[in-house]
Amino acid sequence: MNDTLDLAILRTLVAAEHLGGFSRAADRVGRTQSAVSLQLRRLEAQLGRKLFVKSGRGLVPTEAGEVLLAYAQRLLALNDEALAAVRGQGLSGRVRLGVPQDIADTVLPNALARFARAHPDVVLEGRVERQETLNRMLRDGSLDLILLFAEPQSPTGQDLGLVDLAWIGAPGWGPPPGQPLPLALLDAPCLFRKAGLATLDAAGQAWRLVFGSPSLGGLSPSIRAGLAITVRVARFCPPDLAPLPEGILPPLPRVSLRLAFAEAAPPPAVEKLGESLRQAVAEFLSARL
């Protein structure tokens, strides 16, 4: 029996988990879907356990699959960090990164820590801004790369995975009977605002704007006070707030996490930070809530 796990197969499994299917994972790792299916069967034979089972039109991990995915994240992280440290020796220069607040609070710390350890001579500069500002700064050359949210079919950048939007409010919040739905939303243009209002309008749900702000911090008081709800990525929900239970309001669409570069062929330091961001996103999306 082969007692050594193949990291290439583990990378495919992790990609399938956070991209939402083996077809998209096959595209990401540069293999055909039949080759990926064969990889999975070989891995299951090696471990003597079923790792995925059918659910609807897709596959979901079994309990053994969940365990393996957790270890796979750690193995791949260590492997990639070791490669980056050795290959990146002597790497220098400046990298200018932009992200919105949600990503800065969640995904970014691990990515920056890993990158700084592997490439201590690279100077990092960051901006936390609204998405339309980040896109403008990327176009005008003020930033080298950005990580942000976009609609799933957006042509912008590289798709790193889909995340669910959710209605977010204070714990125990319920809609006021007979009244328009009270909302706290970021100022337009805003992808989450657009998705929320389009969903309510399509369902014929009346709403009113209670609080508006250019920043998440400006919305928080009204949400924490139970005066309004907002739209955010479910996985990025602050610990003192909570997604509304399913069925209270119409479901929201999913959005894509996308990585975009200012140049088609980024400098080595910029590309290395992009690799750290891809890995951090994969780990975050594969982590169990």
Automatic annotation (TrEMBL):
<keyword id="KW-0804">Transcription</keyword>
<dbReference type="InterPro" id="IPR050176">
    <property type="entry name" value="LTTR"/>
</dbReference>
<dbReference type="InterPro" id="IPR000847">
    <property type="entry name" value="LysR_HTH_N"/>
</dbReference>
<keyword id="KW-0805">Transcription regulation</keyword>
<comment type="similarity">
    <text>Belongs to the LysR transcriptional regulatory family.</text>
</comment>
<dbReference type="Pfam" id="PF00126">
    <property type="entry name" value="HTH_1"/>
</dbReference>
<dbReference type="GO" id="GO:0003700">
    <property type="term" value="F:DNA-binding transcription factor activity"/>
</dbReference>
<keyword id="KW-0238">DNA-binding</keyword>
<dbReference type="InterPro" id="IPR036388">
    <property type="entry name" value="WH-like_DNA-bd_sf"/>
</dbReference>
<feature type="domain" description="HTH lysR-type">
    <location>
        <begin position="5"/>
        <end position="62"/>
    </location>
</feature>
<protein>
    <recommendedName>
        <fullName>HTH lysR-type domain-containing protein</fullName>
    </recommendedName>
</protein>
<dbReference type="InterPro" id="IPR005119">
    <property type="entry name" value="LysR_subst-bd"/>
</dbReference>
<dbReference type="Pfam" id="PF03466">
    <property type="entry name" value="LysR_substrate"/>
</dbReference>
<dbReference type="GO" id="GO:0003677">
    <property type="term" value="F:DNA binding"/>
</dbReference>
<dbReference type="InterPro" id="IPR036390">
    <property type="entry name" value="WH_DNA-bd_sf"/>
</dbReference>
